[in-house]
Amino acid sequence: MRWPAASVVAGLSLLAGASAAPAQPGDAGAAKPLYDLKCAGCHGEKGDGKGPAAELLDPRPRDFTSGIYKIRTTAGKMPSDQDLFRVVTEGMPGTSMPPWSVLPERDRWNLVAYIKTFAADKFKEPQKKLELPKDVASSEESIRRGKEMFEAIECNKCHGDAGRGDGPSRAELKDEWGHPIRPANLAKRWNFRGGSSRTDIATRIANGVLGTPMPAFLEAVEKPEDVWHLTNYILSLEPDVPAYATLVTGARVTEAIPDDPNADFWLKRPGQHIPLMGQVIVDPRNFNPSIDMVTVRIAYTDTEIAFHLTWDDPTPSKPDGKQTFADVVALQFAPGAEGAAERPYFLMGDQSGGVYQLRWESDRGAVEATANGPAKVARLAASEATGKGVYDKGRYRVVLRRPLAAKDDKRMTFRPAVFLPIAFQAWDGGAGETGTRMSLTSWYYLRLEEPQSVARFVMPPVAALLALGAMLLVVWTANRRGSSGS
Predict the structure, then answer these.
(1) What is the tens place of the pLDDT at every residue in 104-162?
(2) Nearest Cα to Cα of residue 8 among 99, 84, 87, 108
(3) Which of 77, 166, 209, 374 is such that its CA lies 20 to 30 A from the CA of 435?
(4) CATH ID of 248-448, from 3.30.70.20, 2.40.50.1020, 3.40.50.150, 2.60.40.1190
(5) Looking at the predicted structure, is the pLDDT value of residue 19 above 50?
(6) Quick check: do 5-124 and 140-236 share a fold?
């Protein structure tokens, strides 16, 4: 199971100072019991990456005996002690390697010393820190140059034209041990294994990532400073860490809602980012989910509601029913649960309580369904839902729409100003995800904004007119009395 991006990012901000601590000599002997307890389950007792959990993990745990390390700031092949300490402390975002900052610092340095014993001879090689070219500040010119280099040295062959890991070479890539390996989604730099700072990114470009198809580019670029231009281009692809939503909201609109997922109507609206996790409760589990976030935009009128959903997927799936399945996104609701103390089980309900789902499937389009558990999903006849999806450069955009009012008690009625339970699920069919092999969330709440009453616009001028009338009446009365007295 991958560690939640939000948790990892929060941890990294707290640990920024810890990872820069000066190297300390560790006691390898003292670390063995701790290694056996905390690390051997994945990395194996012999440090060969063959622990009992290894088969479930993607990417695979590091084989320490090989002496091949992805993340290093040295000019040679072996990482520094500080490099190892940083990975132990901060973990590796986007993988199953968690941050071990909960351990005392002394224990972490001891673990570094113990890990080195698995390839002791290789760590005897002299080390020299990698010297990066002089930093180049980001600018439109630098980003433009970085894009040129991105294409010139064929970064797009693996990472895709928009950097989303959907390049044409993707299917052929393997690591040093012959395992399939996915190119990084450069638009999600909070998942970068070696850190997401400018220096971290420039170091990966210059140094490469050992054990993977990612080569060192310091000698391949036309000029050394191109490393920084490439860095600035990568940083321009998407915003940094997304702000994850805690409450999902929908806006009331008066204009027609477009079906086109690429319409400005949708793209100009702020997205609400929802993190997804792999389903690890029931078999078959999904320890390495492909989809880790969906972005939602919601609009409604007097008669209908529409959901705009965006997520990254490296391949548009063509189902064969064997290894490749449909790409699917689902919105899950709990009819009648607004204001109730209990909601159905978030994993598609159960026998004691069912859920309603509004789904988009790449091979069928919009679907309405009910579920009483993952194995008991039933499509509803005479669906009133419609949907349109587009795929471009490693990203899906989908619009799902439906009448506000439900035509029967199996469906959901959407009411403004009411907190409605909502959950999200997604399947990457190209990664073999189907059934319970999915990404999902627990329950959130959806609230549709209340329609704005015209009274808020009418009452202020009415009150002003009444006040003016009262003042005129007072003046007129005073003048009349004065005239009578004379």
Answers:
(1) 999 999 999 999 999 999 999 898 999 999 999 999 999 999 999 999 999 999 999 99
(2) 99
(3) 166
(4) 2.60.40.1190
(5) no
(6) yes
